[in-house]
Amino acid sequence: MDQHTGPPAATQQSTAARVVLNAREERRVVRGHRWVFSNEIAQVDGTAAGGAVVEVVRQDGRLVGLGHYNPHSLIAVRILTDRREPIDRAFVAARLRRALRLRQRLYPQSASYRLVHGESDDLPGLIVDRYEDCLAIQTLSLGMDLMKETVCDALEEVIKPRCILERNESQLREREGLPMRAGVLRGEAVDTVIIEEGDVKLEVRLMEGHKTGFYFDQRENRHAMRRFAAGARALDAFCHDGAFSLHLARAGAQAVLGLDIAADAVEAARGNAVLNGLQVICQFEAMDVGPALETLHGSNERFDVVVLDPPSFTRTRKNVAAAKRGYEEINRKALRVLRRGGILGTASCSFHITDETFLGCVQEAAFRTQRVLRLLEWRSQAPDHPILPSMPETSYRKSGLVEVV
User: Fold this and answer.
1) What does pTM read for this prediction?
2) Residue 268: beta bridge partners?
3) N or C: which end of the chain has fewer CB within 10 A?
4) How far is residue 100's CA from residue 229's CA, in Å, rounded to a whole number?
5) Distance between CA 62 and CA 394 in Å, rounded?
6) Closest C-alpha to 323, from 331, 311, 332, 314
């Protein structure tokens, strides 16, 4: 793990080059999409280094916006603003303040949430998760990676955190030609921090957990599942750090079994159960979920509530067919261990699997298990992961609450 220092902020203000779009290619960007794809570019006037700020213009020279340029990426330009202005610390700080105001409105009693959700917060390629007084960031584009020090300066100005960590281990960086990195950027090294999600406490491993340590995007979905917990025997498949399990137990479940193939995740879940005094109700086992569900079914184990939150089954469009088979299979196995009248909370975080496709997978699983389902609610990602209607790529999480009739 190492630290990376980007160039001075001043280099980010240069717009010596102009990217000229093909005729009529500006329509999508003008309407709010934040990406310009390489095949939409007619020519580049001037010299633009990778990561530089460039002007994007129409055929007649009218400005479309300023953005970070990467000549080696399919996403050639990520739009930062639709007007000419310096891209500097003040620019980043203004957007951070706007993002902070939204999160304070959403969660007035909390200081743990996704503070910046990339393009949705007009900071394309930047993710910032806040864990009380600690920040974890991801810079997922070349331009934003080069602005990392400027981003840290702005974060210290707006938030004044105890530490800023980078969790730049996402495969998305490979598409931008960026290496994997993790470490301390500012402040002290912090291994764990305890956050609160309503009446549930969770210890987050800042340098070890998936993504930046925690799945904030499921916050509202966890609360939604609590409505079905009273007196239930529940199964939390792909339990990760046990957040769903703990919410179900706190809401009155009589017993919760959490399964995850990752031994370190199970260890964290057990620790979180102890932290909340729920270790008697919650049991966690390190098991491969698919075979475990088959074993439970074969042993005639049945549950009133099942949570199914697997990792992404595909990150590319070409693997959609295989992902559909995977989602159908895992939902079929989950439905076989649900009692009649039971509730399934099933989720997908694969962007390339649409809502309609995912619901179709669940319905196919029901057909193959001779179950009739009633859809109670269709949900998305938490509002601190806002969605731009003009940019479908900002919507990736889908979750259904269904009853086995």
Assistant:
1) 0.92
2) none
3) C
4) 33
5) 27
6) 314
